[in-house]
Amino acid sequence: MRKKIFLLAGLIFFVSTDFSLAQGSGMFSISGGPILGWHVPQINDLNDELIKIGFPEISSSGQFVVGGGGYIDVPVIKGLRIGGMGLGFSADNTIEALNIVKAVSLKYRMGGVSFEYVKRISKKFDYSIGSIFGIGSLGFSISKYPKEFQNWNLVNFGIDTVGNNNVVNKDYSKTLYIFQPQLGLGYQLTNFLYFKLNAGYVFTLSKNWKLDEILEVNNVPSGIKADGFSVSLGINVGLFVN
């Protein structure tokens, strides 16, 4: 299934590029700005494991992502737009029970380049089809401390205290290779301000999970993935020339 999706996205990109080459010269644009969005990773398996050990869950309905990016429209190939971006999210949850604080954190980071075919609908609106290719990371950490650690006292970090079974701090992470086909709708608000709404689906290939970025960990539930629906709004300030 995944191979078919990659092949389809590649075919769409090359067909659109061939079409744009036949159209001659297009507009020139160069711009950039912040990106705000929503990403829904697959973390139900992670929440199932957290429940088993009495830790709080992370919301599976999605996370708010922030970042930034920019692009350039290539005038010699009408409709071709090349861009770059970086974005991510961090989600946390904490509970207290029997004077013990239990905390969970989920983090996602990515950076990549995009290739799109853009078609004008009117003077103000355009649509696009394309893909993002990138690299990133997904990680989660679990922590458990005595509630007394919330009060400043360096004695808490003495050898005897840190050796207590009530203290846990483990970090798991893996490297991701990211492919994201997407559709977009653009709106030229002014001569220098352009909004771009993108919606797509993140697919990933990944390396093995590591504990504290050192020890490879086997048998991590396969359902803990960054793969999922993603929508974003780019607020671009720049130069736009027809």
Can you walk me through this structure?
The protein has helices at 2-21, 44-52, 159-162, and strands at 28-39, 63-73, 80-97, 100-120, 125-146, 168-188, 193-206, 209-211, 215-217, 228-241. The chain is mainly beta. The protein has a single domain (2-237), classed as Porin. An 8-stranded antiparallel beta barrel has the order 1-2-3-4-5-6-7-10. Residues 1-25 have low confidence and may be disordered.
Report the sheet-strand fraction: over 45%
Extended strand count? 10
CATH class: Mainly Beta
Order of helical and strand elements = HEHEEEEHEEEEE
Overall shape: it is: elongated
Indicate the CATH topology.
Answer: Porin
- Named at the architecture level, the CATH assignment is Beta Barrel
Summarize the structure.
The protein has 242 residues and is mainly β.
What features would you highlight for this structure?
14% helix, 10 strands, mainly beta, 3 helices, 57% strand, disordered N terminus, 242 residues, 8-stranded antiparallel barrel, Porin
How would the blueprint of this fold be written?
Blueprint: H1 2-21, E1 28-39, H2 44-52, E2 63-73, E3 80-97, E4 100-120, E5 125-146, H3 159-162, E6 168-188, E7 193-206, E8 209-211, E9 215-217, E10 228-241
